Each structure stands twice: as C-alpha cells, then as structure tokens.
C-alpha cells in the first residue's frame, strides 16, 4: 500500500521491531491530509513561542524570608494617646532591609494578641532599605488577660521587585520593644484611671522624722492588681515599701512615707508640685512582676490633708528677705570665649528667722558654657541677718529674671526657695557691661517676675 502514496507525499520509514509498519502507515496517512500538516506545524510554532516567552521572563519574586528586620535602638518606646484619648499608642522604630537587589520591602502593619489597630510611617528610604515607625493601639481588655510573649507579634511585610510584581508575608518582631510597650501602656492606663485613692490619713513618725500617709486605694477595674508604694523613704531606710494585692472591685490601705527632706519643697516657687500631690505606684498582676510605674494625682481635698501634715512635720516656713546692696563687673576668665558672657559679683543681705543660709548652691543651674549661674556662699544668720557674696554669670541680652537660690536651715530641717534679685543696683551694673539702658532692663525683669 505504500506504493499507492503519491510521490510528493511519500515518507520513507526506517526502524526496527514490530512498530515500523504502524509508524510508516500513520505517517503515510498524515501525509495524505495537507490541513493536518498545517495544523501540526501551527502547534509546533506555538509551543516554541511559549517556551521562548517563558525563558525570557524574570525569576519569581524572592521569598520574604530573605528580609532582614532590625530593631532601632531608641531611648524608649514612645507611648502616647490616640486621638480619642481612651487608649494608648505605642510606637517603635525598625530598619527593614531586603537582601535581594532591586526589590523594595515595606512593613504594612502589625498583628498579634491584643492589637486593635496599627499603622506604619516611613521615616527614610535608602538603596539598602527603609526605616519605619510602627504604631499600635492595644485592646487592653484582651491584652491584660492574655499570656502573650514577644514572639507572638509579627510585622506584616510586602515586597515589590524591579518588574512591579509583589508578594506578602510576615516576620516576627526582632526585639521585645513593641510587646513590652503594649503591656506597659495597658497597665499604665489601668493604674492611672481605674486604681484611685479614695481616702487619706496621716501621722508623724518622730523617730524617723517623716510623714506617714495611710492611703486607701480602690480598684474599680475587672482586673486584680498588685500595688506597691514608690516613696522617697524606700531608698534611705531598711523598711521596705508597702505592697497590697487589690482584687477587682476592692480597696486596700497602703502606707506612703514622706521624709522630712521634702520640707525643702514647701517654700518652692509657684508652679513647683507640692510634695505628695502625686503619689507613685508600681503596678502589675497579683502573682507577676511589676508591669508599669504610674503617678496618681491627688484630688484637692487629699492634697490639703498632706499640706496640713507637712505643716506639722516641718513647722511654719521660714521668712526670708534678700536685697542686693552692690554689684561689680568681673573680668572674664580667658577660658570664656563667648563675648556676650558677663560675671557680676553681688553682695546680698539675707534676713530670715532660719539659723543658717546657703546662697547660690544649685548644681543644676549652669550657663551655656557649663559655668554655675551662681557661686555658693554659706553663712550663719544672726538677728540682723547676714551679708553673702556670690558671683552671677549671665549673658548680655537676657530677659530672664535673676533669682538667687537659697537653702535655709532651721531645727534640722532644710527649706529651699529662690528670691528675685532684680533691683536698680543689679540693672545698672548689667547695663554698664552690656551698653543698655538700666531702666529698660529693670522694667523687662519686673514684667517677667
């Protein structure tokens, strides 16, 4: 039958075994149909085209496991309030780098136990990656009851390669900053809003010379808490601070100690917090560790009780008057490079019913070039007071009212205050050194007094 095939369509088959005849007949039959020959050629061409197109495509998007996320060391996890003011917002910084060239990996959010919402802000972008700030709003009702660990929190990642294709995934947070911050925020909110003082009594411990408060704290939350007083006396006495466990809906009395050294704040200038106006507590779960330290502002009635106790402990505040009788310009040290810096020696007469005065002693008050604002002078006070000499270092152009720090000692108690020294004598010496009008300078000082 092979001889019947037209010459132009004849196919010669060479093979071995029993299939030679079948293959030959099939090819001969295929050769009799031109349309089939054309279709076969089309299929072959299409297959070759698809293969060439696939070979030309870029490799698939690199797996997100190649992403490196590093926690950025910051001074602390930033804790704020959300815009409705009912929840905390915790923010931590991370560096995100992709190990694959040409791809961009971004953080899109945070997931984990007790997360109500999260957001991401890109701080900076470089060829090696991004620095982002990840913020989360905790769901504190869940977070305080969950036994979660830092590894339960994962950053949501998205990667886009050079060809615009993307992939998504997650990676564990590289440190405990966010997890710790979320728990601390919830405990802080609970301690500052749902564990509140309801009553206060005081007594004076004459042996330790301190005021002892008995503060009734009420826990109105649904969470049991362990509350410890954080008081100044705890660092100076063997007796530890008071601690109580408050079940949900209960109250307990805690002892808070205020040592006599706080008498120094009784005479502080207006605006300085009165000792005991805010009580500090360490708070955590009943059987766990301290989760946060919170401050509880006292209502006016309870602050008045503490003020009465301080009056009994410290006695009436000493009276004090200070007046500058002379002011002399001193030559600057060769180490002072600021041409606007000046130093005036002041003779100050201090009158007080205290027994001793230390003037100008304030290590925290320094000039811009690290000189003390006032030098120190220590004098016993007689019936007529005492004259002390101090050096005031300042700058021309300053409009800040000069206030001289004073420590007054009486009956073993130390009272700190500061008194303005803005008079015409000082203004004239200041103006002579700075080529200004003394009347104008004094007027500026008095307006800011």
Features:
disordered N terminus; flat; 5-stranded antiparallel sheet; 449 residues; 4-stranded antiparallel sheet; 22 strands; alpha+beta; Immunoglobulin-like; 39% strand; 8 helices
List strands and helices in order, with pairings.
Blueprint: H1 20-31, H2 34-56, E1 67-71, E2 78-81, E3 88-98, E4 104-111, E5 115-126, E6 129-138, H3 140-143, E7 154-160, E8 166-172, H4 177-193, E9 195-205, E10 210-219, E11 225-229, E12 243-246, E13 251-259, H5 263-266, E14 278-284, E15 290-297, H6 300-314, E16 320-330, E17 341-352, E18 356-359, E19 377-380, E20 386-395, E21 403-410, E22 413-420, H7 424-434, H8 438-448
Helix pairs in contact: 7-8
Write down the overall geometry: flat
Quick one: biggest sheet? 5 strands, antiparallel
The gyration radius over C-alpha positions equals: 40 Å
Element order, helices and strands? HHEEEEEEHEEHEEEEEHEEHEEEEEEEHH
**What fold name goes in the CATH topology slot of the largest domain?**
Immunoglobulin-like
Mean pLDDT equals 74
Oligomeric composition of the shown chains: single chain
What is the CATH level 1 assignment of the largest domain?
A: Mainly Beta
Low-confidence stretches: 1-18, 53-62, 71-86, 268-273
Question: What's the number of extended β-strand segments?
Answer: 22
Helix count from the secondary structure assignment: 8
Provide the domain count. Answer: 4
